[in-house]
Amino acid sequence: MLKLERAVILSGPFTVEADFSVAEGARVAVMGPSGAGKSTLLEGIAGFRPLRQGRIAWRGADITALVPGKRPVAMLFQDGNLFAHLTIANNVGLGIRPDLRLDRAARARVDAALERVGLAGLGARRPAELSGGQQSRAALARVLVQDRPVLLLDEPFAALGPALKRAMLDLVADLCAEKGTTLLMVSHDPADARRLTPQTIVVDAGIAAPPQPTAELLANPPAMLQDYLGREI
Ligand SMILES: Nc1ncnc2c1ncn2[C@@H]1O[C@H](COP(=O)(O)OP(=O)(O)OP(=O)(O)O)[C@@H](O)[C@H]1O
């Protein structure tokens, strides 16, 4: 269980309040208007934003004071996931050791992760030599080698076309199912949310609500969510 206990996450003068639990292995969408605090919520869970009060616990252990690298959490960002000057293999290897001192076993893990995301044999290339979809796969491979039980996605596939985005999200869902990974994913797309995330956290004006069933929420969305999702519901 991932538990946020009366947590107040800080982003400059802005705060996000969260007081809820997410069951282990759950897949949860994070939805809400632009500027409501969705990224802040994920960054707080990942340890990139401090808490003013409250705590975050994973499997009963308090992780509030842990730096991001020590948390049971991996996060994919909107952009900037890959370093342009490093090969794809080294970009993935950063997930194992930030100093890139990778022994043979670690290199094998990198290769296995690249293969799992469909990039076998492309490890020697640099990001600019890959398509947008392949770059997303490489970023996902780095998350895979980290082998963390919680995965946070902050719209990492937003720049891809709809078919490619769908394929990437399906790959994420498969990987999560294989490992029992707990997934929190910012989404602007009701179809994605229905397909992949049975529960949804609504964030509005700095308040993150507890997860609720996605189908029920989208069948009868509050006005704020309707405005945000437009006619796509
Ligand atoms: N360092 C900062 N100083 C001031 N305000 C900030 C700072 N960082 C974030 N904010 C504000 O915090 C609020 C929440 O930002 P956040 O990125 O979490 O929203 P979001 O829901 O992810 O939005 P979007 O869907 O547009 O990405 C915004 O109103 C933003 O302007």
Automatic annotation (TrEMBL):
It comes from Pontibaca methylaminivorans. Residues 2-230 form the ABC transporter domain. Transmembrane segments: none annotated. Keywords: ATP-binding, Cell inner membrane, Cell membrane, Membrane, Nucleotide-binding, Translocase, Transport. Pfam families: ABC_tran (PF00005). This is Thiamine transport system ATP-binding protein. The keyword Nucleotidyltransferase does not apply. InterPro entries: AAA+_ATPase (IPR003593), ABC_SmlMolc_Importer (IPR050093), ABC_transporter-like_ATP-bd (IPR003439), ABC_transporter-like_CS (IPR017871), P-loop_NTPase (IPR027417). Gene3D superfamilies: P-loop containing nucleotide triphosphate hydrolases. One of its GO terms (molecular function) is ATP hydrolysis activity. It comes from the Bacteria. The keyword Kinase does not apply.
